[in-house]
Structure formats: structure tokens, C-alpha cells
Amino acid sequence: MAFEFTSAMIITDQSAHTGRFGKVHALADASCTFVSSDLTENGSSTINGITMNAGSEIEDVVITSITLASGQVVAYRI
């Protein structure tokens, strides 16, 4: 499923950012926590401590919350 992105948000802090995101691109190595009903970790909708290397992406799933422990990402809204 391809999404049409309406805007993007660069995230560099450790606050929780909520919305409907269809793509996350790592600008720098990042440790992330995501909440998504489309992407699960062992059946849980909260995915903790995922390491994304710079340049890597997660896309074509709906992510409703992004929290960074470190790094920088750009999150594309749908």
C-alpha cells in the first residue's frame, strides 16, 4: 500500500510525537519506539528500542506515535 504524504516532521528530541505517519526515514543512527496497529513486536503494538541506521526507512505501515531515545528521523504524515 502506498501512501500520499501530506507533510513531514523532523524529530530530534525525546518527546512523544503523535499523528498518522506512513514513513520514517533515519537522518542519523536512531533508537526509536513506535506505536502502530500495523507493525507489531511479538504481538504488541508498542515496538521498543528499535535501532535504525542512518538512511534506513520503515514505510507502508501506519505509525501513530514516535519517541526517540537518540538520533534524528524525518516522519512523513499521511
SSE order and pairing:
Elements: E1 7-11, E2 17-35, E3 46-52, E4 57-77
Antiparallel strand pairs: 1-4, 2-3, 2-4
Description:
There is one protein chain. By secondary structure, the protein is mainly β. It contains no helices and four strands. Strands 1-4-2-3 form a four-stranded antiparallel beta sheet, with no helix packed on it. The mean pLDDT is 96.
Strand residue percentage: over 45%
Q: Averaged pLDDT, please?
A: 96
Radius of gyration: 11 Å
Major sheet attributes: 4 strands, antiparallel
Poorly predicted segments: none
E-strand count: 4
Overall helicity = under 10%
What is the molecular shape? Answer: globular
Distance between the termini: 12 Å
Class by helix and strand content? mainly beta
Helix tally? 0
Give the topology string: H per helix, E per strand: EEEE
- Order the strands across the largest sheet as they lie in space: 1-4-2-3
Q: Name the quaternary structure.
A: single chain
Offer a few descriptive terms.
78 residues, mainly beta
Give the structure's gist in a few sentences.
By secondary structure, the protein is mainly β. 0% of the residues lie in helices and 67% in strands. 22% of the residues are buried.
